[in-house]
Fold this sequence. Notes:
Oligomer: single chain
Strand content: 25-35%
GO molecular function: serine-type endopeptidase activity
Number of strands: 16
Keywords: Disulfide bond, Signal
Structural class: mainly beta
Protein name: Peptidase S1 domain-containing protein
CATH topology of the largest domain: Thrombin, subunit H
Family: Belongs to the peptidase S1 family. CLIP subfamily.
GO biological process, one term: proteolysis
Amino acid sequence: MAVGKLLALLVLLQSLMGAGVRSSIIGGGDAPKGRWPGLVYLDIKTDSGERKWHCSGSILNQKWIMTAGLFSNNRPQLYTSMWIGTYELDKPSERYMEVNLVVRNPEFRVTGNGFINDIALIKLKEPLEFSKNVAPVNLPKDDDIFDSSSECWIAGWWEKINVWGEKSNTLQEMEVRIVGQTRCEATFPDLSDNMLCAGSPAGGKYCCNHPPGDHGGPLMCRTASGFVQVGIMSFHSPDDCHTPDRFGIYTQVFSYMDFIMTYIMFG
C-alpha cells in the first residue's frame, strides 16, 4: 500500500476507533429475540492480542460469514471468536466459532472519508448448526427493487439513548429509510453505484458508526418472501449524527453477488 493511502487509512481508523469498543447507532429499541437470526457479533483483537473493538456480520451459509472489509485485512488471527445466536452480550451465545479464512474484496480501498468495495467474507473452521436463533440471511435477487418506500431495518448492539458511551447489552433494532442516490451524492461525492444511503432525513436516527461498533452489520429490507440483506454498514457522515442529510453508507450487496457466490459455492 502506498504511503499516502496508508496514512489516509490510519487517520480514518483513528477517527472511527477513538473510543475502542463503544457502539455506534442512535435510536431504536430492543429487538424481539429470534427476529434477526442471521446476525453475528465479531470479537476482534489487535496484533498484540488486546481486545480492541467489535463489529457485526451476517450468516451466508453453514461455513461463511459476510461483513465489511475495513477490519478484515485478510488476517484470520485478528478474530478471537464469532459469537453466533447472540441476543444479550452479557449472557452466553449459542455458539462461539473460530475463523479459518478471511477474504477481503481485492478492490477494497480508502476514499477521502470512507471506503470503496467494503466487503469481506469469513470462512469458519467448523460448520454451523442452524436453529431458531441461527439461520442464514436471504440475498437479493435480480428482480428485487428497494427504494424509499421499502421497509428496512438495521440491528446490532448500540446506545439506547442519544448519549455517547451508553452501550446496550441487548440486541437493538431500528427502522430506517433508503435515501435516493442523488440526495446522497450531495453529501457523499464519492458515492458509487455499488453503495447506497439509509437513515432518517430528519437526522438523529441512523447508523453513525462513530465510533465503530456495528460496522459490517446488515441492512435488511422486506420483500414478499421475507427480509433480504440489501446492504453492509460501511461508513458515515463525518458531521454531527443529529443533523439532517447525514446518512449511513452501505455496501450494496447485489453488486457483489459474483464475488459472494464464487466463495460460498466453491471456496
